[in-house]
Amino acid sequence: MRRAVSGKLGGILNGKHVLLGITGGIAAYKCAELVRGLRKAGADVRVVMTAAAERFVTPTTLQALSGHPVRGSLWDEAAEAAMSHIELARWADAVLIAPASADTLARLAGGHANDLLSTLCLATEAPVHLAPAMNRVMWANPATRANVAALQDRGFRIHGPASGEQACGETGEGRMLEPGQLVAALAGSAGAWQGRRVLITAGPTYEDLDPVRFLGNRSSGKMGFALAEAAVAQGAEVLLVAGPVLLPTPSGVRRIDVRSAAQMHDAVMAELAGTDTFIAAAAVADYRPKTVSAGKIKKSEADATLALERTPDILAAVAGSPMRPKRVIGFAAETERLEEYAREKMHNKRLDAIAANAVGMPGSGFESDDNALTVFTRTGRHAIAHTTKRQAADALLEILLEQLP
Fold first, then answer.
1. Domain containing 235: what range?
2. pLDDT tens figures, 84-124
3. Residue 199, exposed/middle/buried by CB under 10 A (0-12, 13-18, 19+)?
4. What confidence tens digit (pLDDT) does each residue in 144-171 have?
5. Tally of structural domains, the chain
6. Annotated catalytic residue: which of 146, 149, 168, 385?
7. 168 classed as catalytic
């Protein structure tokens, strides 16, 4: 069977009451799309805005999109005659604050209740989700980091921020996650992967020749990190074993950093017990130098010969382990004969599925934000058309649950 997979979230929040808090920040303009996305996913949405938020987007817009009056003040006499802020706190199945400004994080960390939104956060028993958005320097400030840590310790769920170009013209970590990502994150509590433990490998491995040089490959780790982000957004408990990459850890994901294939093998096998699904997205080196020089290897006029030996086969070790997870999924990056080599790998290593992608072409695979996959299971073939790696990750998880329940 060949088909495209969309990874849509329509209906996944059916019947859920979502209280959306909007605070002051340029990212507030995205909240119109966020309200639409939440409603499309089936949620009943009510909006609370701070005074600063109203400088960026009007209550009228959010009222039209949510279908409910927008609240903004503790001193709304008509609403508060019936203790409406308590009713709203009890009504919510989830509270999402997006954008969550640096000031909002500080006030929540301090337990303040000096406006309607902060009061609701103290009065609700529903989970509170925060989508930080601010300048990269503000996000990196030790005070902000301490506030985030304190909130996480109290059970607040932090989503993002993402890294990229910011409204101030700088580039770095601090962008609010996109509306679709926040809908998916909120749906995690009701997501299809709820209660499952997923172990994912990502990135390259580096096999040292000497203190200066190594054997490596062009894997950026972006596909594995996208899978980790997608799985945790759908409710999974995710452990990410990452090779040497410069990528931020997705919110809610536990991460172990390694360098070599041997280190990755040891980390995976140590964490395998209790794992429901193993996804080997890392581009692990097949060979390593037989000996590693203690000092830098000096250049000479003569040609050099490098003796190599096999590295541990992580995927085969997991598939053959007495603690084998319910699902074992591999990746095959190929430059030719994609289906033949992918199916051969799946058969030889006794995998439940394999995701194959053609590398060496611009616009997908290594060092790209996009990808196109062909997923082979024991009973079929499923195409994921060229898209972002994050959307491809959603589609792959959908296939795995559908084909390997």
1. 197-289+305-403
2. 667 888 888 889 999 999 999 999 999 998 888 999 999 88
3. buried
4. 999 988 888 888 888 888 777 777 777 7
5. 2
6. 168
7. yes
